[in-house]
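User: quick one, fold this
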Amino acid sequence: MTEDHSRASRDSPEAESDPCSSEVEPDLRSTGAESNLRSSEVEFDPDSTDSPSDEPTPPDADSSDAIPNGLASDALVPVSRTERVPSPILRTLLEDCSEGRALDVATGLGRNAIALAEAGLRVDALDVSRAQLERARERAVSRSVSIEWILADVDSYVFLEETYDVVTIGFFDARDRLPGILSALSPGGLLFYEHYLESADGNGPGDRYRFASNELLAACANLTVLYYAEYRVDGEPRVTLVAYKPSDESTRAVANSES
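Assistant:
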């Protein structure tokens, strides 16, 4: 399946306690001009009872449920190339999240946003494509979760400072907006980011929208990194980062220890 995403959020040849639930369909809040430049077109079954999914589950895809040696490992991550459910790392993180606010950047069909809402978080999900958000909303309604859908372009959206306890970005080149996105994290807030890496020769068709080795790590130098891995899925290089924004107390503690 081919996906169209000019910022290469999915430019692979084959590449998504107090539960938040509501019987009212969430509204689509328009805050930017509609465009399909950074939308991906993937098929899904809205009637499926499986985990949140951007694509139908192939019969041989069992490896996507494997957790890569916990969050302290930089081993290869055994996940299926077709991203149907949230990353196993994100699912593990959400086991300890049952309240607070979350933002899913470039949500697409809402794979991560739905998982965040099912974990009990109050979720805002942002995307530039009205069609994508409508389909994501249908999926959320079918799973009885409430999400605030925001129609806006990541490139021009004004992120609210220190608002979110969790921010997720999946397969989208947000490097130019990372300062604004990171400012939206509350002190102690968690960032989960997964994306593609450049090809080995740096001349791949989508490399301009992919991270170089260690580029994402350097871009998040002001965060405390819990997990970072560069790995391959079916031969394609990827990167995953989990980090949190230090609180004022922890920042002062570090400063005092170094003084």
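User: anything notable?
Assistant: Residues 1-6, 8-82 have pLDDT under 50 and may be disordered.
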